[in-house]
Design brief:
This protein is mainly alpha-helical. It has 21 helices and four strands.
């Protein structure tokens, strides 16, 4: 219900603002909101040739293609005058994201089709884990801990192994593997959900822990910083880990209090201490490496672990091939069945993803998002907050809505202020320490047709806010 109302609020407010801007003259056309593409110039006015400044008119007449670009500025988009059919079209600025109709198309081509491919492969592997008995063994080992965090899940339930793989993939920055494992976990949790239309306690806890984004190897962030010429691309790794870890603990405590979980459990405390010790040990090892060693380590660790998971699944399945015979199938046929289920899951979640992304596109292109972000930045600047921090806030604000959009702001901040500036580093921490909340909710709850997400959305947004505040303190402390 909350998600539905929020989605409607985004749509209605964005449409109202678009129409208001058109009628008061702040916008010349709204075609870009419907049909425009990201980074396309925006048409702001149209005049007769005689109405433009004389030097522009003379330059257009002398230009080979009757086009003139003025106001060249390294910080702002060029203003372009195009003379055609007796009128001069004036363009200024660029579109922040694809329009409504291109977003519909691109959500299928750029998101769903690649996601279906990942789902097909990893769901195929998970089918092998199920039939071979590997998932059952993993669930049995982890049950003592998981039953404390997820008391409504039966002991040794298969969802335990899927959630473990999802958390591990997120922890290592393996986004392509994390989503299939997570969707399989949601499907498994849905099987024991007494109310199929309403999110269960276990599903909410899983979603909030997943969305908190605990990450050890921020591979993509390091790559962006290296491409932008950062002196030490991996120097944000420790702040990212600290911020995302605090976000994960906050998510666990908030949901745990709501669900009345026993925090005094010895096994729960032991696992938490082991996790903290593991993170500290990894950081101590990485910090003693030189720059090349850090880059080599962060580049290869995640890939090696993913290859290890694939190799283990195939070898374990081969060694337990008898179980496949008992199930009247083969290893390859079981993989194909699992892959086919992954494709079906991808098709199921497409409408949810498309609906959410279209709303976000409209919100950004309407100009409403920029006005809100500017007012927030103005508010914080008047409170005496460092301008380098307020310049990074657009990344934090857009991150819950769109990973691609916030990534664009991140890259822009590195290009504008420098990769080693506080703004760029803080933007990097914002980008890696949280999830795209609305996208995640649409994908995960949509995959099992959950209509009532209860308090999941509110908790996830609160955790996002905690991560933002933590990131600011951590970044100013480190840099």
């Amino acid at each position: 219900m909350v998600l539905s109302r929020f989605w409607l609020a985004i749509f209605v407010s964005s449409i109202a603002f678009v129409l208001f801007s058109l009628f008061v003259g702040n916008s010349y056309t709204i075609d870009n909101v419907l049909n425009g593409k990201k980074d396309d110039p925006i048409l702001i006015s149209e005049k007769y040739l005689e109405q433009v400044p004389k030097f522009v008119m003379d330059s257009i007449k002398n230009a080979p293609q009757q086009t003139m670009i003025i106001n060249r500025d390294s910080l702002n988009a060029d203003t372009t005058y195009v003379y055609k059919a007796k009128t001069v079209k004036i363009y200024s600025g660029v579109q922040k994201s694809d329009g409504l109709l291109p977003t519909c198309k691109n959500s299928l081509l750029d998101l769903i089709i690649p996601l279906i491919a990942y789902l097909a492969f990893f769901c195929g592997l998970m089918e092998l884990l199920i039939i071979s008995g590997a998932s059952g063994k993993l669930a049995k080992v982890l049950s003592p801990v998981f039953v404390k965090v997820f008391p409504s899940i039966p002991k040794n339930h298969p969802s335990i192994s899927y959630m473990t793989l999802n958390f591990a993939a997120n922890f290592l920055g393996l986004d392509s593997a994390a989503t299939p494992f997570g969707l399989k976990a949601m499907e498994s949790l849905q099987e024991i959900n007494p109310d199929k239309d309403k999110a269960s306690d276990a599903q909410i806890m899983f979603m909030c822990l997943h969305a908190s984004g605990l990450t050890l190897i921020a591979t993509s962030i390091i790559g962006y910083r290296a491409a932008a010429g950062a002196s030490n691309p991996a120097d944000v790794m420790l702040p990212c880990i600290i911020t995302s870890f605090i976000g994960t603990i906050a998510a666990f405590l908030i949901v745990g209090v709501k669900q009345k979980i026993n925090f005094k459990s010895a096994s729960l405390v032991a696992v938490l201490m082991a996790l903290i010790a593991g993170i500290i040990g990894m950081l101590m090892y990485v910090n003693q490496l030189d720059l090349i060693g850090k880059n080599y380590f962060t580049t290869n660790l995640s890939a090696l672990i993913l290859i290890g998971i694939i190799a283990f699944t195939l070898i374990f399945s081969f060694l337990h091939e008898k179980k496949f015979s008992e199930a009247k199938t083969t290893v390859f046929d079981a993989f194909v069945v699992g892959a086919n289920n992954g494709v079906k899951t991808g098709v199921t979640i497409f409408p949810y993803v498309m609906g959410m992304l279209v709303a976000i596109s409209l919100f950004r292109n309407s100009g409403l998002f920029e006005i809100i972000s500017e007012w927030i930045a103005f508010f914080f600047s008047n409170m005496g907050v460092n301008k380098q921090i307020t310049d990074a806030l657009p990344v934090a604000m857009l991150r819950p809505f769109s990973s691609a959009g916030s990534r664009g702001f991140l890259i822009d901040s590195m290009n504008t202020f420098g990769a080693d500036s506080l703004t760029a580093r803080l933007s990097s921490i914002f980008q890696c320490s949280a999830e795209s909340t609305f996208y995640v909710i649409a994908v995960y709850f949509g995959s099992v047709n959950i209509k009532n997400t209860r308090y999941a959305l509110g908790t996830m947004l609160l955790v996002d806010l905690i991560c933002v505040i933590t990131a600011i303190f951590v970044a100013t402390w480190f840099f």
